[in-house]
Amino acid sequence: KTQSKQSLLRDHDFPMPKRTQHPVNGGFPLRCFALRLEHFGAFKTSKGERSKSCRDREQEDSLAMSRNQHVTSTPEDFHSELVRRIRSAKKRVKIATLYTGAAGMGAAKSPREAEFLDAIEEIARKCCSEGLDFSLLMDANRGTRRVNDIAGVCNNSGISSDASGTTSSADAVFGRLQRGLRGDPYVSAICNNMTDNLKCGVYLFCALDEPLRSILPSPLNELAGVMHIKAYVIDDALILSGANLSEEYFTDRQDRYMLFTNGGAGLVDFYADLIDILCQYSHRYCGDPMIQLGSKTCEDTKSELYHSLSALFDGSNDEQPNDHDVIAFAVPTFQAPQNFFSSSNSKKLPFSSDTEVTECLLRTSFETDAYATVGISSAYLNPTPQLMNSLKKFNDAKEKKACVVLLTAGPKSHGFAPPKNKSDGVNGRGRDWIPSAYAELVNEAAVHLFPRGGKVLLYERDGWSFHAKGLWLMSSAENDVNSNFVQDYVIRDATSLSATIIGSGNYGVRSQNLDFESNCILIFNQSEDPCAGVDEIRSKLADEWNEMASHTSEVCLANGNDPPAGLGMKAA
Question: Which of helix, strand or coil describes residue 94?
Fold first, then answer.
């Protein structure tokens, strides 16, 4: 068991820099950051208590998960921590998200959206008085989608609503920044329209090229590809998540969150640099609905983006300490749409994509550990053929027990299931078919896994929708307590957790082919005498899976291995 765990860190295996090469064109290794206990944080809980540190800490923000207080963070915790940190920021706030809420229904119906926008307005004042650096990056099409503005968000912020009385994420954030800046006489005089005199701006990233971007109407243009990365940098802290910044993500949409503190051994700066690079390629929004990328041609800007990303992700010079205090090695990944860089010389970034690295991780696991188990969570389950082939190999050997569990949204908790009661006023109308379409994809995945003993779980929780994505990889001995993982879906031995993935990707066809994504892979220290904090962090992550699984039902095929017309379920 120990040997199989350590195999993930061998020179010829995944994923340590200076050894891992691009599986296609021999590109350079990815970046790698050695995380210690002080680099893991915990949210303030909804009960107003903080998880205690498992060692004496020098700073308040060095908050590790306590063995005796496993708390799965809630959407309210995420909102409170994010807003608190933004309001107390000293040097920088850099946000990448698909979109933000516009609080168009008013503070009474969207109180957490309104509080987030209040914090953004406060940041604007710090940008001019304290030199704080603020950037908020969102997808161009989703960020400019028109939503109801019953509360007059635009007019109250100094931006004129259109004739239909609507606003957008970009309008809401830009309007709050302007309102905050107008409070400073100096800014009002020379920087009323937020020019480059201040490091304070809203940026729209265009995942689609012309003419497709202009031809497709909103919101259909979002189906062709979006900037889907979610990373939240505040000073020397980083929150990685799959959550966007609207009311439901702050209230009752199940997601995942991981907080890295004290710079995360360079991981925080890395994501700050990634956001900066994507902002440089993006359109700086100043209230004009027309998206302009500047005087440079699309080919020139893509070439600059290509070279900037290549330099950022080059881990050739990274050194990895091999000492007792390392909790985990963090490997950030990146995924760009197919053919996005087709005008570049190589047509492909010179490092492994997120999907390639994930498949490498899985391949290394099942090739070196006959009893490895894996759990994957996806809000929109649509596994690629490559991923499904990798998962099936976990059960190819006759003597192996079933060891693959997929967890996704059920019909009631699907993100597109009506009624939504969202601030955009859509309420799921016209999208009823989407959960049914994903139900067919769930059936298809079940057909592939069931003959090998795998399972598919559906998250169903009254009043909640499901948006969590991630991967949990366990190394197991033949008689290990996790041997019943596929039967009861519970990670009973957290010490067997060898790796996990958190980020924006959904492990599906869309994430691989259409969207910009970034995940972060954590490979845990698997030495014979690791730091005591390793098990405490792994326990928190095991609790995260177990909590989600407690709200699931199992997909059951109606006639053996034949796909049924609808989903069959039994309680988990």
Answer: strand
Nearest residue to 254 via CA among 114, 65, 23, 457:
457
515 neighbors 311 (Cβ within 8 angstroms): no
pLDDT classification of 571: cutoffs 50, 70, 90: very low
pLDDT at residue 138 in the model? 98
3-state class (DSSP) for residue 179: helix
Pairing mode, strands 231-234 and 465-466:
unpaired
**What tens digit of pLDDT does each residue of 309-363 get?**
999 999 998 887 767 789 999 999 999 998 898 765 557 899 999 999 999 999 8
Measured N-to-C along each axis, helices 169-181 and 111-129 cross at an angle, to the nearest 10 degrees, of 40
> What is the C-alpha separation between 99 and 139, in angstroms, rounded?
7
Whole-number Å distance between alpha carbons of 104 and 13: 50
For residue 351, CA distances in Å to 303, 335, 336 come to 16, 10, 11
Evaluate whether 88 touches 132 at the Cβ level (below 8 Å). Answer: no
Query: pLDDT by residue (tens digit) across 84-113?
Result: 999 999 999 999 999 999 986 677 889 999
Amino acid at 292: Q
**Residue that is written with structure tokens 């990233």 in the block:** 205
Mean of per-residue pLDDT scores for the chain: 81
The C-alpha atoms of residue 360 and residue 191 are separated, in whole angstroms, by 49
Q: Pick from 452, 454, 443: which is nearest to 486 by CA? A: 454
Q: How far is 230 from 331, CA to CA, in rounded Å?
A: 16
For tokens 């609808």, name the residue: 566
Percent of the chain with pLDDT over 70: 75
pLDDT score, position 370: 77
3-state secondary structure of 539: helix
243-284: pLDDT as tens digits: 999 999 999 999 999 999 999 999 999 999 999 999 999 999
Helix or strand (DSSP H, E) at 488: helix 485-488
147-177 residue pLDDT tens = 887 766 555 555 545 556 888 999 999 999 9
Tokens of 243: 């959550």
> Going by C-beta distance under 8 Å and a sequence separation of 6 or more, which residues neighbour residue 66?
51, 52, 53, 54, 536
Q: Which of 224, 240, 481 is CA-nearest to residue 373?
A: 481
Q: What is the 3-state secondary structure (H, E, C) of 295-355?
A: CCCHHHHHHHHHHHHHHHCCCCCCCCCCCCCCCEEEEECCECCCCCCCCCCCCCCCCCCHH
Secondary element (H or E) of residue 497 = strand 497-503
SS3 of residue 494 by DSSP: helix
Query: Among candidates 447, 458, 469, which has minimal Cα distance to 553?
Result: 458
For the record, the structure tokens of 459 come out as: 């998250």
CA 323 centroid distance within chain: 29
How many alpha carbons fall within 13 Å on the CB side of residue 45?
A: 12
Q: Are 516 and 207 in contact (CB under 8 A)?
A: yes
Q: Which two tokens stand for residue 461?
A: 């929780």
Q: Tokens 């303030």 — which residue?
A: 44
